[in-house]
Amino acid sequence: MTPASNSSSPGRPAVARRTVLGAAGAAAAAVAVTLPGPASAAPQTKPPRPLPGGGDLGPNVIVFDPSTPGIQSKLDEVFHQQESDEFGTGRYAFLFKPGTYNGLNARIGFHTSIAGLGLTPDETTINGDITVDAEWNGGKATSNFWRSAENLAVVPANATNRWAVSQAAPFRRMHVRGNLNLAPTGYGWASGGYIADSRIDGHVGPYSQQQWYTRDSVIGGWLNAVWNMVFSGVQGAPAQSFPNPPYTTLDTTPISREKPFLYLRGSEYRVFLPAKRTYARGVSWGNGTPRGTSLPLSRFYVAKPGVTAATLNRALAQGLHLLLTPGIYHLDETVRVRRPNTVVLGLGYATLIPNNGVTALKVADVDGVRLAGFLIDAGPVNSRTLLEVGEPGCSAGHSANPITVQDVFIRIGGTGPGKATTSMVINSRHTIIDHTWLWRADHGDGVGWETNRADYGVVVNGDDVLATGLFVEHFNKYDVQWNGQRGRTIFFQNEKAYDAPNQAAIQNGSVNGYAAYKVADSVTTHEAWGLGSYCNYNVDPTIVQHNGFVAPNTPGVKFHHLLVVSLGGNGQYEHVINDTGTPTSGTSTIPSNVVSYP
């Protein structure tokens, strides 16, 4: 292919269409000017010119309209690059303008997003498929991470669309006019995923999916369950029946506010901010125009890879929101969000990397901040934290306008050595964590018990925090430590660290191992539904884990539908929660369940 004049670097696909949005031009650099005056006067400088809002979206945001030639070849070109590039630097977003597209098969690889640019999914229809399969990995979808589909209607070519993914692969705001298959061809294993705000006219077939969470959606039916299938606010969900079959079904979701998204109003690009819903059930867009507000792109600093943290902070201080275009952002200082209602939105798995042990992103204890759609990679120098929401000890209430953390993923190792003592800390009250995967790598480069050391996944200190879709895996100590009052979790998926060298390495005082999910002894009210923890101690299969879950034994702390599993007998659990629940059994990969606790 002959590269376009605005193509990316060699080896990257050329841009199909590059669109200029908002105020044109790149960020202006500060210009120092010495003013005339008395010889004794100190030199004066003009303040830097304001950074412009808007701008083009860079070479790796590829925008199509129905008349664009060669759409399929462009989709194929990026897929062939990204299909098995699990830890590479490629980052891409395909955006489809409203209209109808015929005969496409959009295969989605690593670090790739596909989305429609309508205000509702039905404004952008693909007659064809949006496909994730697992040919690259021998038919197993257990490593099909970091990809997404959003805001599109799909009419599958053969009545069923295939979306065989595991963690960090959200399927949001989609309308499938047919069936949805969540397993790879041949039904090799897949390891859990997430659907939200979507309508599936036919049935959903998880088949070999081990666990799954579906929120605020409409489905025509659900075919089967393996270990842990959780639904909240889903019309058409199966009735609650855990553990046989293992369905956990809540009629509504207590609080939800959908992820911000880019859309077109005429020829103007804007970011839509969906309204908060309480006791939600079904999709947010079912009755026409969804509730919410929108912002013009001119109110966003459109960041490109290579921009400094200082410039991002300057844009935020100026009152701009941040749109992170696809690519890698190396940070030598913390990005600080201090203004209420600030939006930080990533496209195409834009990735923040703290280079020198700083925290990548800190949010002040203010109303309404929305973080969405980006990845944080730990750097080689240990960071105390990677993401902090609110300051330690903060106590302001945000129930009317919560902070949301959505499709924000954290990775320690895999791309090379990375370290972070704690990945995510939530200090602010009423924060909503809506789909996150915090992952200490168990494969890739820079992986080892001390090489990619990361003791804690998420620590929740704030009161009244809600997690919907919490995936946290492989941390050296507690994967989740919950210290705040009145916390709630709907769906939790966990694997303990594979690579513990021996029993002593995970010993927690006199207790065998650190639980996957610990509620502090001081907590008097907490509730959680649909939680699973799995061990695969493949370095030393004799390791014993006392339990998957630890919580104070008090009436206000309640758990519903828990399980632990030993994968092939690589390590064993003695109990499920506290000293309750039968041990896992030998080499049989069969869950040990607790229906309710206490």
TrEMBL record:
Name the UniProt key words of this record, in alphabetical order: Signal
For the region Disordered, give the residue spans: 38-60, 579-598
Origin superkingdom: Bacteria
Give me the stretches of Low complexity compositional bias: 580-592
SUPFAM superfamilies to which the protein is assigned, alphabetical: Pectin lyase-like
Keyword Signal tagged: yes
Task: Read off the InterPro entries from this record.
Answer: Pectin_lyas_fold (IPR012334), Pectin_lyase_fold/virulence (IPR011050), SACTE_4363 (IPR059186), TAT_signal (IPR006311)
Signal peptide start-end: 1-41
State the protein's name. Coagulation factor 5/8 type domain-containing protein
